[in-house]
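--- STAGE predict ---
source: upstream dedup step, 1 unique chain passed
mode: sequence only
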Amino acid sequence: MKKWYEKAGDQGDIIVSTRIRLARNLRNCPFPCKLQKDGMLKVDAAVKDAVLNGNSAIAGEFDYIDMGSLTQTDAVSLVERHLVSPEFASDREGRGLLLMKDESVSIMINEEDHLRIQVMQQGLALDEAYQMADHLDTLLDERLKFAFDDRLGYLTQCPTNLGTGMRASLMLHLPALQDSGAMNRIAGNLSKLGMTIRGIYGEGTQPKGALYQLSNQVTLGLSEQAAISNLKDIALQLVAQERAARETLVKHVETQDAIGRSLGILLYAKLLNNDEFMKLISNVRLGISMGLIDHISYDQINTLMIEAQPATLMKHAGKNLSPSQRDQRRADLVHSQLTH
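--- STAGE serialize ---
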């Protein structure tokens, strides 16, 4: 069964993935910040029961993970695979995760809110991801009864999530716009439109490999459909700008040389640290989009961008690795995947 990140989707040269996340809380239950350990365990048990023992046909598609039982490596790997937030992985006691077997759906229990329902899809797939999230939301509301106010919408711990409680986001590969120095200007313009653009793992993180998260900021006074439509329109404008910038950038022999050298290093290096890998794989991804590399697919690149991350490398190795051992294992993985 292929994971979402092992496939390329619509607009896949630039839009790597789509995420829809819904914040929900149980009616007549204090927010997680006010819950003691026993209260968190009750919420965890109620959500787990609603998903795994419900009448839905998808109940059997989920596995339950007790976050408190995970090693630090396994928890960080979940962040690297974009299945949970960094904060959720750092403080794990009393928290649970319901994870669909293909990793396209994850339900965080006792994060900032009682539930964070998250759907991931490859490429540009906002409507499809929202339909899945909305379906899960409806099924769970029937059993759990979410906190809702006729005027304010869904009630959330942070007021910025009031209303729809929805965050829609797209992961974009923007090497040409980054190279042109346009990202600060773009970020400023987006904030005026109720959008934000951040690093690869969301709020407070930096972009790696020219990967950015574009997401909606406004959740109150705007329907889910309107928010998704706005995000899609703005994303397609950025896609057009990036493609135009790439056409200019790739004409430079220095860019063509950097792409060729990047592929050469990835194919033959014996050691690759993560920062170097992300920069090189970004260049190769750009080369594929511009027709300079024709024997490597986006599927291979997207998979490597996840599986070569430090904790995920160690998870697959089944043991802790020193930085040098990780660098060697990463180089071996990249070589085997790109020559496969």
